[in-house]
Design brief:
The structure is a homodimer. Chain A is mostly helical and about 220 residues long. In chain A, about 75% of the residues lie in helices and about 0% in strands. The first copy, chain A, has two domains: about 5-10 and about 90-220, Tetracycline Repressor, domain 2; about 10-85. The first copy, chain A, is elongated and about 60 Å long. Chain A binds a DNA duplex (18 and 18 nucleotides) through helix 5.
DNA sequence: GTCTATATACGGATAGAC
DNA sequence: GTCTATCCGTATATAGAC
């Protein structure tokens, strides 16, 4: 599975996320027409990610956001109750589609080796597809409990695969928790340091393959 | 070399950094007595790291800082021109000692294998010793050019070691830039996710050894 | 050197017209 | 649905006493 194939199968779009957010927040979003709402939500999220990348969410003023989206201050407040509310929406509501894909992948493949590869790659490919969401969540929501527990969850999936692989004699015994942590660190590297890989001209497929190779050299019997 | 030994040889302290900062900023710091200045600078930095860890530097108000340090607003402004200036001081001035240690380590050991281990461990141990500095810089200064070029610099050291190891027939040929990136990602994991390793009761030595083992399984001929 | 009191600006949020 | 004008709290920064 490479990135191109992955996109065909699982490929949700930013529009899908915005629609999801719109439908999940009927009480805070005062806009009636779904089409305009979804459209503007996309603009808003994109602008937030853009500004927050440069100066952080806290340092972004509503006036910054107004300028970047081309919408007025008043208009913005029809889409969320306030700045805090906007943050919360991004932190919590936007993830349902992404989570769905991750869970789906982690159920495919019986063989531990294939399963490990699939799960690792799926995570990287998703973070490529929705990089701004991943980046923003990491930088602006690191200490939120929900995010920590998500990290815990995906780590446990990896540890589980490593353990069942060991039980089947495919993987070496070892400190699987620690190995799973290292995997997560390397996955995060992809969306945290985009500038580096752009500069080095390293594609997402090359990155993912390298990670899998590195890992198999260490784990396989 | 383990953490305990490392500390004995290279162990600078927070006080050393504060003294360095004091001496490097005679025009912005209005305090005459070095002892009180260094003392209070330590308090200030520690408080900044503490508050910024929870809510980020931008969200920290000067009143927060005043309360946490026990110093008044007026007193704080005798130590830096303003909040922006404080950020800049932390981002740029505090690193000279740390850089010195890193450079020193990277010159020891002729043998590539030993050198790789030494450099990797030294970086992790330094980040343990000065975790708040590393964490803060990552979170609050990621897109600063100076920080990017530091990352570039340390990455090139790693790539260089891998290449010379390949030339000597000790390491396998491979994509050394990418491998060096992965190493950096795993090193960063240590100071970015302290809560996780505390919870799993994994020591810095165990973490560092695991990283070295993982890498050698991949690199050694 | 450090404090308290205060000037000044800026940012979040709302009212009400269109 | 979106705009402009405006309110008001909060944050940075300074003045001047001790």
């Amino acid at each position: 599975m490479n990135y191109k194939e992955f996109k065909k199968i699982y490929g949700a779009s930013n529009q899908d996320i915005s629609r999801e957010v719109y439908r999940n927040n009927p009480d805070t979003i005062r806009i009636k027409k779904e089409k305009t709402a979804v459209n503007n939500l996309e603009k808003i999220f994109s602008a937030v990610f853009n500004i927050a990348y440069k100066k952080g969410f806290q340092a972004m003023s509503m006036r910054d956001l107004s300028q970047k989206t081309g919408m007025s201050l008043g208009a913005l407040y029809a889409y969320f109750k306030g700045k805090k509310d906007l943050l919360k929406i991004i932190q919590t509501q936007g993830w349902s589609i992404i989570k769905k894909d991750l869970d789906q992948v982690s159920k495919t493949h019986e063989n531990p080796r294939e399963r490990l590869t699939a799960v690792i790659k799926a995570h990287i490919f998703l973070s490529e597809l929705f990089r701004p969401w991943f980046y923003f969540t990491f930088m602006e929501a690191r200490n939120i409990e929900a995010v920590k527990s998500m990290e815990d969850h995906t780590q446990k999936i990896l540890t589980g695969i490593l353990e069942s692989g060991e039980a089947q004699g495919i993987f070496k015994p070892g400190d699987h928790d620690l190995t799973a942590s290292m995997i997560k660190a390397m996955q995060q590297e992809w969306y945290l340091k985009r500038w580096k890989y752009k500069k080095l001209k390293i594609s997402v497929d090359r990155f993912a393959d390298h990670l899998v190779n590195l890992l198999e050299a260490f784990c396989l019997v």
